[in-house]
Amino acid sequence: MISRNALNFSGGPGALPETVLAQVEAAIKEVPGVGLSILGISHRSDWFASIVEETENNIRTLLGLSKDFHILFLQGGATQQFSMVPMTLLRGQKNAAEYLDTGYWSSKVVAEARREGPVKVLWSGASCGFNRLPEEGELDFSPEAPYLHYVSNETVEGLQFQRVIGRDDVPRVCDMSSDFLSKPCDANKFSVIYAHAQKNIGPAGVTIVLVHDSVVKASSDELPSFLNYRRQVESHSNLNTPPVFAIYVVLLVTRWLLNDVGGLENMAQINRHKAELLYAMLDNSEGFYNGWSRVEDRSQMNVAFKLPNAELDKKFLAESHEAGFSGLNGHRAIGGIRASIYNALSVPAAEKLVNFMDDFLRNNRK
Ligand SMILES: *Cc1c(COP(=O)(O)O)cnc(C)c1O
């Protein structure tokens, strides 16, 4: 029997590996070797400093990240980074920062950036209903822009960049909240990468920010300390009480990625396999399951689709819930169905969903 937890296709907070959950359960009572509950350990303890250090090292190893980057564990979610990035790099600038408007989350990022300084939307998917990403020839990057911002994986629509975009002489900033540590990425080509934990690598409450040293040096002392990358780096993410529990769970997930999965190449292979199973189901359904995204831009994390009418969407959700699946409802912004297949979602769980979809199709196709 596959547990209900193993069949959690939620868009976020997402499922976590069951081996990690078992360790978390034990740590709530008592962290091995410490003798205290994880919920009551001081953020000023040597133990916690060692946890932060190991988590940082694991992320560095997984990504092959250079020494020029600082790794921060911040609060405020990805949303705080929507503002913290332009506060640092755009305030007082004459030239516009370039943003790509590729979906639900990009649109939110752009709105926040505009509060801080000039923004140019270099490309928008609004006119095509955010069902595809731009091609190389559609993007004319300016060498004068303070930075380029984009979202690597649009969680709601299920669109994922298959390449790094932008110019090497303009800082790249990327929201990787929904595909961070799901595959290898050329992290060293970016100036800022941020990803909250709750899609792929932990519980809500902590956001991982990789900041290049040049950005840290550019941080103005006029910013509130909490929103100043340099102050956060100087305090080792311990400027005020950090989310000890959430960071500990991220550590356990990075250990799982390194030791159980065997690194990001392996993780990518597993994620690709799950995505292929689901997209093959869509492609072979003769239009019963309609994918949201153009084929070339399909996400390996979020598979968004619709049935022939809203009635059938509803029936699909009700029957899938009955069968043990959860989190399959599409985002409220676009409706339909969305199967989020983050790292912790296993291949057998994806196979079980495909079988369910196959049965549902046969019982409901006119
Ligand atoms: C979910 C999501 C967010 C929202 O993050 P919060 O931590 O809730 O602020 C931002 N960006 C992307 C790509 C997301 O998937």
UniProtKB/TrEMBL annotation:
It is an enzyme of class 2 (transferase). GO terms for biological process: L-serine biosynthetic process; pyridoxine biosynthetic process. GO terms for cellular component: cytoplasm. Its main location: cytoplasm. Pyridoxal 5'-phosphate binds at residues 78-79, 105, 155, 175, 198, 240-241. Pathway: Amino-acid biosynthesis; L-serine biosynthesis; L-serine from 3-phospho-D-glycerate: step 2/3; Cofactor biosynthesis; pyridoxine 5'-phosphate biosynthesis; pyridoxine 5'-phosphate from D-erythrose 4-phosphate: step 3/5. Its EC number is 2.6.1.52. It catalyses: O-phospho-L-serine + 2-oxoglutarate = 3-phosphooxypyruvate + L-glutamate; 4-(phosphooxy)-L-threonine + 2-oxoglutarate = (R)-3-hydroxy-2-oxo-4-phosphooxybutanoate + L-glutamate. Pfam families: Aminotran_5. GO terms for molecular function: O-phospho-L-serine:2-oxoglutarate aminotransferase activity; pyridoxal phosphate binding. Gene3D superfamilies: Aspartate Aminotransferase, domain 1, Type I PLP-dependent aspartate aminotransferase-like (Major domain). Residues 8-344 form the Aminotransferase class V domain. Binds 1 pyridoxal phosphate per subunit. The modification N6-(pyridoxal phosphate)lysine is found at residue 199. It is found in: Cytoplasm. Its cofactor is pyridoxal 5'-phosphate. Belongs to the class-V pyridoxal-phosphate-dependent aminotransferase family. SerC subfamily. NCBIfam families: PRK05355.1, PRK12462.1. Catalyzes the reversible conversion of 3-phosphohydroxypyruvate to phosphoserine and of 3-hydroxy-2-oxo-4-phosphonooxybutanoate to phosphohydroxythreonine. This is Phosphoserine aminotransferase. It comes from Mangrovibacter plantisponsor.
